[in-house]
Design a protein that fits this description.
The model has no long low-confidence stretch (mean pLDDT about 80). This protein starts with a helix and ends with a helix. A two-stranded antiparallel sheet has the order 1-2. About 40% of the residues lie in helices and about 10% in strands. It is α+β, with helices and mostly antiparallel strands. The chain has four helices and two strands.
Length: about 110
């Protein structure tokens, strides 16, 4: 993973060593247009085609639809959504205090594969 600023240096670095470097940047200005890159030795491999596409744009995602709210309950539903918006940071803070991994003696690599 590299920013667009670093990708120019990496292109030069890899080219001088006989590698081809392909990048795709997906980030925004505030994160330096972060992206990914892969380099391969051009003496051993030939690039036949390159496709750069965001996975989220290449797959059709089914959108979950909310059930219709009866007209008499729209105000109540809106108020509950609004209250949940402000209460969620408090609930998340409580959840952060209990880290299930911290309490276990399990190997981090084994735990990460769950």
């Amino acid at each position: 993973e590299c920013s667009i600023r670093w990708s120019g240096h990496l292109h030069t670095f890899f080219q001088q060593r006989g590698y081809h470097f392909v990048t795709s940047h997906y980030g925004l200005q505030f994160d330096g247009y972060m992206g990914i890159g892969i380099a391969f030795p051009s003496r051993k491999f030939e690039l036949l085609a390159t496709s750069m596409q965001r996975v989220s744009e290449g797959k059709a995602w089914d959108r979950e639809r909310r059930p219709e709210v009866p007209p008499g309950k729209k105000l109540l539903t809106t108020l509950l959504d609004f209250a949940g918006y402000f209460a969620s940071p408090l609930l998340l803070r409580q959840a952060d205090d209990t880290d299930e991994f911290e309490d276990s003696n399990e190997d981090p690599w084994v735990y990460s594969r769950k």
